[in-house]
Amino acid sequence: MRYVFKILRNFSFILILLLLMAIGLGYTLTGQGGRLDVGWLLTRLSPHFWAALGIGLSVGLAGLGVSVGMFVTGVSILGVSVKKPNAGSRSLISILLCEAFAVYGLITAVVLGDMLKDFSAEKARTDRRLFEAHMFSSYVMFAAGLTTGLTNMVCAVCLGMLGSSVALATATDESALNRTLIVEVFSSSLGLYGLLLSFYMHSLTSTQTSFPTPVWEEAGS
Fold it and tell me: For residue range 109-148, what is the model confidence (pLDDT) as tens digits?
């Protein structure tokens, strides 16, 4: 079975590489090689795409990290509860701390989602400054969501691994939870930094432009 997975992994890598080569060759032969430029990708895609992607990543990445973290620490807690139910119930604090990271991602998604409102596309075509302001807002929303999602994902996995070790240590010595709880608390506070940074990015869109909602149509068309 291990060799089968290895073959599938190598085949998937080759398939993706061939697909990218086919796309690049197709654009080159049809005279659209400029679309392979990163700058073209950033300016031609709708800002609604970047904003929605940032909102989705803030929840999706945080939820992914929390799922992995709760799985890692939950398995250890269940194993400990078989022999020492009291120690297992006391270790549930790790599950609660891990769940907070998903809440941070949800808060960011709600705050960013509140910025999405309709706006006249005609004004975006004629006013270049307004168009650039919307582009700036969409990039900031994407960066805010990505920052919160990645920060909370890594912190949730870290806390899950730490909670697993704490559960095993508590099974040996129940007083170990009191000594290691401070480590878990400080580890869980790291995800809050990503949330605060996303709020700071949100304030940038409010101060740089009076239209923080990213609405875009191709300029000059």
Answer: 988 888 776 655 566 667 677 777 777 888 888 899 999 9
Amino acid at 123: K
Q: Is residue 11 part of a domain?
A: yes
Planar angle of CA 58, 62, 63, nearest 5 degrees: 115
Q: Are residues 128 and 82 in the same domain?
A: yes
pLDDT classification of 212: cutoffs 50, 70, 90:
very low
CA 198 from chain centre, in angstroms, equals 11
For helices 176-208 and 93-113, angle between their N-to-C axes, nearest 10 degrees: 0
Predicted confidence (pLDDT) at residue 209 exceeds the cutoff of 80: no
* CATH number of residue 119's parent domain: 1.20.120.610
- CA 171-97-190 angle, to 5 degrees, is 120
